[in-house]
# Entry
Amino acid sequence: MEDFEIEFYANIGLLTVRFAQMENNLCQIIGKMINSNDPTIAFTIIKDNTLDKNKKLLQDLNHIKGIEVVQINKLIEKIKGVQKQRNLCVHGIWGKPFITDTGIRALCESRKISYSEEKDKSGKVVSKHWKFNEFSENDLVSIKQQIGILDEIIGIEEVLLATFENENDN
# Structure
């Protein structure tokens, strides 16, 4: 394997690890906001949640409690910005990296079937569309940028977790 391939795959791995850290921290924040003396209550509420459900739950808890509103809203917006890349990175099928004039790149295939319908004014279906397998070309620079954004998100989460710890100590 060439050095550039190793670098590309290593950054995909790092991106995946950062996503996992971010999601784990998000669950911890939700647990702190639920504020139960029994940690199994928070775990039971969030254990099967998707990232979308956890973002929504965090928004709802934030609306009710009003703790660190600006930071939590900023956190949710930043997570929305990296979520599509997360799904592609974790669930996509990556091709072999290659070098272009603009840098190191690789194709990624997302194997999903999506269905849509077009309806006329009366609501009658006039056409149906199935879309199979989506391809995207990704470059190492943008993957490194996503890692940087995730590092920012994790930093915000760590500040929030420390804030909640300090409030619980008082």
